[in-house]
Design brief:
InterPro entries: Homeodomain-like_sf, HTH-type_Tx_Regulator, HTH_TetR, Tet_transcr_reg_TetR-rel_C_sf. It comes from Mycobacterium kubicae. One of its GO terms (molecular function) is DNA binding. This is TetR/AcrR family transcriptional regulator. It contains 9 helices and no strands. Helix content is about 65%, strand content about 0%. It starts with about 35 loop residues before the first helix and ends in a 5-residue tail after the last helix.
């Protein structure tokens, strides 16, 4: 996932950028830098609290008061760091960029079999949700009500869709799934991955990582090549 989140407008070459409509009314405000240990600790507490509440309630249902209460801080302290919930998510996404790109790179390295690549693709998707569930929930829910985030979400999904569609085309050259549309298969697999990861990780029961990854990998592999990973 290659994300370009410089503030200002929507980049048609890169990922969507937040506009002024995503901030509170009035003059633009920029959170100050907090070089002190106390400032960093407070922001980390707010971020961790926001992730906890959003993973439990979803972004749209979460209020700044909810986040502040979870963090044990005042609601006013939130605005020392972020102009709005949307601005917070934008900063999260900037931090998330490099981590997501590293996971995506593991799927495209040379020398893997189709079975191994299916497993790596499933593992990368699962681990991204596992470690960044609140960020993904936030962006996906904002995409329902905000055009910039809708474009951003589409671009996030476009990376695995493009990879899987190309995998299908290569498989078709070898005689697999000859009558299927590569793009539709890819979109269906990514949609299934997204929903499965969300359901498993947002529930109250702690999922078995390896069992979930293997389930996703088997479905991915069978949909394209037939057979199983065993």
């Amino acid at each position: 996932m290659i994300l370009n989140l410089t503030s200002g407008s929507v980049s048609r070459e890169g990922a969507p950028l937040l506009t002024r409509s995503d901030h509170r009314s009035g003059p633009a405000k920029h959170p100050p830098h907090f070089p002190t240990h106390r400032g960093r600790r407070t922001q980390a507490a707010i971020d961790n609290a926001a992730r906890t509440v959003i993973a439990r309630k979803g972004f749209l249902a979460t209020t700044i008061a909810d986040i502040a209460a979870e963090a044990g801080r005042s609601a006013a302290s939130f605005y020392n760091y972020y102009d709005s919930k949307e601005a917070m998510v934008r900063q999260w996404a900037m931090r998330f960029r490099d981590e997501a790109n590293e996971r995506a790179a593991s799927v495209t390295r040379h020398g893997m079999s189709d079975r191994e690549r299916a497993y790596e693709a499933a593992a990368a998707h699962w681990q991204t949700y596992r470690h960044r569930l609140a960020e993904i929930i936030s962006v996906s829910q904002l995409a329902m009500v905000n055009e910039d985030f809708a474009e951003y979400w589409a671009q996030m999904c476009a990376i695995p869709i493009s990879f899987i569609a190309e995998t299908v085309r290569r498989a078709q050259a070898e005689g697999h799934c000859a009558d299927d549309d590569p793009d539709l298969i890819a979109e269906a697999i990514v949609a299934m991955f997204n929903q499965f990861c969300y359901i498993q990780l947002s529930g109250g029961k702690e999922p078995d990582d390896q069992a979930c990854i293997r389930t996703l990998a088997n479905i991915y592999y069978r949909a394209i090549f037939g057979g199983s990973l065993n």
